[in-house]
Amino acid sequence: MGCQEEGATPAAAQPHVLLVSCPLQGHVNPLLRLGRRLAARGLLVTFTTFRHAGLRGIHADGTCTHGVRFQYLLGDATGRDDDADQMTPDDMLRHAVDAGPAALAALIGRQADAGRPVTCVVNTTFVPWALDVAREQGVPCRATLWTQSCTVLSLYYHFYNNTFPDASFPSAADDAPVALPGLPAMAMDELPLMVRPEFADNLWGQALRDELAGQVREEKGAPSLVLVNTFHALERAAIDALPIAVVPVGPLLDVDDEMGEDHDGVMAWLDAQAPRSVVYVAFGSLVDIGPDETAELAEGLAGTGRPFLWVVRDSKRLDLLPEAVLAACDDDKGKIVAWCPQGRVLGHVAVGCFVTHCGWNSVTEALAAGVPVVGYPWWSDQFTNAKLLVEYGVGVRLPAPVTRDALRMCVDEVMDGTEAATMWERATSWKEEAASAMAHGGSSDRNLLDFVDLIRMLVGSCEV
User: Fold this and answer.
1) β-strand partners of 17
2) Alpha-carbon dihedral 233, 236, 239, 241, rounded to 10 degrees
3) What phi, psi does 325 have (nearest 5°)?
4) How does pLDDT run across 139-158, given as a tens digit for each residue?
5) Catalytic machinery residues
6) Which residues contact 107 (CB under 8 A, 6 or more apart)?
7) Predicted pLDDT of residue 269
């Protein structure tokens, strides 16, 4: 289904979904992938966020690709928000809170004036005001795409709503394990940051509190859903134990947007490597492990004696790398790039291990590709995700701060250790489960179709 052309007469009662993303890559990617699936099912889809130079995979204001039209909240005629280019994540969040509600209300109004009234607003975490604006504007359907795991959602829900006072969330001087229904017991260093004492009331924690409070308010009002980038088989116990209803629609993966040209010859280089031989290293769009740990990581990679593909976003860090790593790249036994199409890379037969920061998008991509992992969590929900990967039996957690010997030992354990074959079997099983969920008639596919049917029903009821 393509985008409606500007000035064209709209199809009668065609549902229109407006996607409102937090301006971080880990939120933009899954929300866009959801949008493409909704567009493929015949809905009008518009995507919006605060555009800035650090975001990949987005397009100029007013353009349409894969059935999704891009209309940004602020910026010049190209959709660019120059003030956001130099912002930290904290700055972006403050910017969104200050400027977002009025900008979103204006955007919803412009869509109505253009003959495309918004039927449903879907936000991501950390822009909770989007659902409030949608309610005030009379949008009949409101939903959140939760971009983290249901396990983390459960931890946040119980913590911020104090539903289990005896759950023993740690105080500053307490490291008692946290035990909640449907979840494994978790120690302090396995909890997401926003339930730890020093982070619970910061800017991000307050946004989470507002988001969860909004969901509770919505339970007695018009339909509001929590869509989750997971699948039922992966988090069955956590989903079933949650006191709020959630709708698994994942894993939200897209290969189409990563196909085409071979960026920096990555795929050609992988083609030349033996099956399951390559160590792939990537820490997402925000994690910066610092110069000392970068050097240790580099020495550890060289010490494995294995071919490696390493995403190093900051070109200045290349000056810190030891001769052994640079020599491996010169000999074509290693490759360092600023970016690569991660979905395609993980799906390549040459990749035998993924060293990851454990962002939830990376976790679901690894599981969907059937690749074992070495987890090195750094921020937010990544600590809990690393715990889950160990629970799923597909990886190990690298101790912090990283040392060359620890990295080498973890990679060896995943690729050649006594449990390596079992990890591959489990990873392959999760790959099959993920594919089954997203296949026609699978659990996540059915959930997404039910969501589309709900939106269509609400359009019909509004016409009566």
Assistant:
1) 45, 120
2) 170
3) -70, -45
4) 999 999 999 999 999 999 88
5) 27
6) 18, 48, 71, 73
7) 96
